[in-house]
Amino acid sequence: MTDIAALKAALGDVKTEDNPAIVKQKSRDFFWYSPVLKRQLDHVTADLVVSPKSEAEVIHVLKTCFGLGVPVTPRGAGTGNYGQAMPLAGGVVLNLAEMNKVKAIKRGSVVAEAGAVLAKIDEETKPGGQELRLRPSTYHTATIGGFIAGGSGGIGSIRWGGLRNIGNVLGLRVVTMEENPRVLDLHGRDLMKVMHAYGTNGIITEVEMPLDASYDWVDVIVGFNDYMQAVRFADQIANEDGLVFKEISTVAAPAPHDYFLRHKKFLKPEHSVALLMVAPHAIEPLMTLAGEARAKVLFRSDTASAEERKGLPPLFELTWNHTTLRGLRVDPTITYLQVLYPFPDHVAKVETMTRIFGDEVPGHLEFQRFDGKVCCSGLPIVRFTTEERLDEIVRIHEENGCPIFNPHRYTLEEGGMKRTDAVQLAFKREADPKGLLNPGKMIAWENPDYDWKSDKVYLFPGLQAAE
Amino acid sequence: MTDIAALKAALGDVKTEDNPAIVKQKSRDFFWYSPVLKRQLDHVTADLVVSPKSEAEVIHVLKTCFGLGVPVTPRGAGTGNYGQAMPLAGGVVLNLAEMNKVKAIKRGSVVAEAGAVLAKIDEETKPGGQELRLRPSTYHTATIGGFIAGGSGGIGSIRWGGLRNIGNVLGLRVVTMEENPRVLDLHGRDLMKVMHAYGTNGIITEVEMPLDASYDWVDVIVGFNDYMQAVRFADQIANEDGLVFKEISTVAAPAPHDYFLRHKKFLKPEHSVALLMVAPHAIEPLMTLAGEARAKVLFRSDTASAEERKGLPPLFELTWNHTTLRGLRVDPTITYLQVLYPFPDHVAKVETMTRIFGDEVPGHLEFQRFDGKVCCSGLPIVRFTTEERLDEIVRIHEENGCPIFNPHRYTLEEGGMKRTDAVQLAFKREADPKGLLNPGKMIAWENPDYDWKSDKVYLFPGLQAAE
User: Fold this and answer.
1) What is the pTM of this model?
2) Which of residues 371-390 of B touch A (CB under 8 A)?
3) Partner-chain contact B129 A213, CB within 8 Å
4) What is the pLDDT of residue B1?
5) Residue of B421, B409, B407, B245 whose CA lies nearest to B335
6) φ and ψ at residue A189, rounded to 5 degrees
7) Cβ contacts of residue A295 below 8 Å, gap of 6+?
8) Looking at this predicted complex, what is its ipTM?
9) CA–CA separation, A112 vs A116, rounded Å?
10) Helix (H), strand (E) at residue A388
11) A-chain residues within 8 Å CB-CB of B170?
């Protein structure tokens, strides 16, 4: 149990918050998307929220908590949905949102503090004709540090692949949790030590990210009466090398009409859709292709009237995890999965899954580049019945060659590659020798003897008990 | 035989040139790359060079020549090497180089007159952070109209595919050759009517081209002692979605050392190389990958001293047809081919051809996107012996699944897909009813009964006789 008074005293001038309601709020992310995580983690809360304003303050906090043996779980904006930012063993939530300055804009890259919100970074780079390559659908609230520590790629990945791809993150400054915390400047392959590690082995304080040409993206919705036609059209245009897209997504009927409430006026229940963000100079060729595919153009932000556009969210807030979010608002009983349909059989695999599950698992695909080729991942909606059936749906996908990145697990490994990441584990030994950073998220650290072939769900023994 | 005096009189104020030496010079392109075309076309010359300064003058020239029955062959800068711009039946060479204004720069596109030199267009767009996506290695001399009428893609195609891909040309203004010439604004699929048609069915006067983010591209040469290592490295980095390249090429030893005279100080005879143009913010990740591949970094323009850089041409002037050009300057007996190594077996096919031909056909690859996938085309050097052996080399490539685009033929079809382009033929019927535009280049027009299965080389009956 953390001695909060002693901790606050030791932290000195660093801003803290111990109001239990606020602490609980800052201890949560979008874990409740998953009925499984909701059951497991709903009670989790930190003891104290600490909000450093500088790297020096981060160092001071980590040194202090190291000395007192207090766990530290870093947080950006809490927009993850794997419980990434949830302090399973209590202690400190290290809120980095107040370290949010854009420090330098160069030709092709930007340097920002970890707590900078992605949309705010773009606000500063856009006057120079540049913007971030990749963004989550929580672009308007998520922080760049949280995106790198807990995200995968999202919007923009149709052009750039994922954050994991070399070149999509250029530099990270990381503070270690030791008696005397070190500040490391990571580049090249060393970046992989801390990327998508949920802050389990270092605190990211500053990032350098590549930039691309910025455009006033045109939101386009095209509709088909058959979902596979939408999928094939999306795959076709994604392979058109002369077109520039920021986003290509498909959602099967009736989800668009049922869940996209503000866009409902453009949609019919039978419409399966492709959701597109298109550079303005690619609109005309896209319309040529849409015509050839007999797609119905249901919405174009560049030709819609002011009246039609009124109150509409940007199209990217219908995609990725926002698709699920909008579904949950209409029907709280649904949940979702994350599926990879690997190249080159991705379209055929989507067709197989669509045939097997029908309306129990309405399709939602995100097209992206993966090692140079276009393929797609899915975030299909699941009409949830039982955890057993959910596990069965996972199994059927995997038996059909569609790996699942399970969003109903809070550990790095179970939500990811289902094996030890030796690089991240080794770096944790070095950077967090007491195991105080975001405890319970890296199985390889918590239980070196864990049986990866086991079907059992990992349960962190240090998870705080529900009251 | 053209009545030059009558023609000049009818042309009025339009600028003309009839000095035979200058007319002959303006009637030639880089056809002499090919020993076959050299033999066939060396004597070809127009009667008159006409240099309009406006679209109105183009209309006047075409109307006048239509009335007099004078053939018209359009010319940009004459940098093609298929004899594209050579007036096989004499008549007028329509020199468009004096119509060279950049008319509008938008976010994502530029509008320019057909005779604008590519590098000059970029000089005007770069202050706004934009540049043309695609360029030939003759960037500093070629015109945008000539590139579209006679080129395929070139530098930039590793990112954007070819000119043929929808979105890589946005608009064309075209003047027809009729009693009353029409001006057509072509968009979408209609662009295909005149793209890569050698000006046989209309005169391009104005273009709209898409732009991309401009960078101060870093020239990089990495070396390997084994050619296939260079090929595999090029293929690997071309598939890295997070890196930004303008150019990825490979050239087999000993050609780099033997032919790249100004770069010779960086090269050894045993060096097979990858030639790269890299965005500055992609250099660090590229160096990580080069290190992992144990590539020798032989040259980097961003770290070379002023002394080392002195007198060096830009790296792109070692690539595409400039590779051959530099070879020809050292050894006039060589020639070359153009080969497609289709995805997904492109690397294996390169290996097979390398094994079969060895130093008779030293490898030269250009990596590019083709319908969404990375593959490569080759412009291998051929140590020329006889036309029969050259045809045999072509045949062996094709038998091994590597189509040849034969640069030793002056017709659209023989240098291309070896079949009628029905769209271009139909448009020629409409836009050039007398068949006066660039005669002899479209077999489908000249000889509707041509046997495409025939092994015989097409010979244009109207080709002017050698004196």
Assistant:
1) 0.96
2) 371-374
3) yes
4) 62
5) B407
6) -65, -25
7) A222, A223, A224, A229, A230, A233, A274
8) 0.96
9) 7
10) helix A387-399
11) 281, 284-285
